[in-house]
């Protein structure tokens, strides 16, 4: 499967029925999801690997990982409604994915059961709650040695500093994140947000 074919498959997936501004539930654009996944795939981090989609939302990254031949895929999200939508999306692409409801901040959750080779994620950018991405970074490094995440543009120095001594930023890929009008406070039908796909590796 090439990059364009993957993007086309992901374009068919459903988004959030009732997105939450508090949870920053913006649908990950298929083009950005496909770029992250195909890049990880080309680096040997997807095919034949155990993958976890952390904060999976409606499961676009999880579904893409399954389509690219991951040996197993698990997605976890705090929102039961999003998890239900993710299960439907997995069924739509005939992907065997385990989805769970859980909070990345919950220390009582059995995280050892989700240890994997690669984490993919699109964590909150922190627009509604400052530092909302930090628990995702922390948990990703507990679960996997390789992490590919979508972050707000200009976040790579922060990620490098925050993970110092725990991980090394391997590469940063600049992308445009087309965000459509989703919530009442949005003024434009579409805004193109600068984001970075950051690949960091546990040390």
Automatic annotation (TrEMBL):
Signal peptide: none
Domain of life: Archaea
TM region positions: none
Gene Ontology MF annotations: methyltransferase activity
Pfam families linked: PrmA
InterPro entries given in the database record: DNA_methylase_N6_adenine_CS, rRNA_MeTrfase/Polyamine_Synth, SAM-dependent_MTases_sf
Keywords: Methyltransferase, Transferase
Example of a GO biological process term: methylation
UniProt xrefs under CDD domains: AdoMet_MTases
Methyltransferase as UniProt keyword: yes
Protein name (record): Methyltransferase
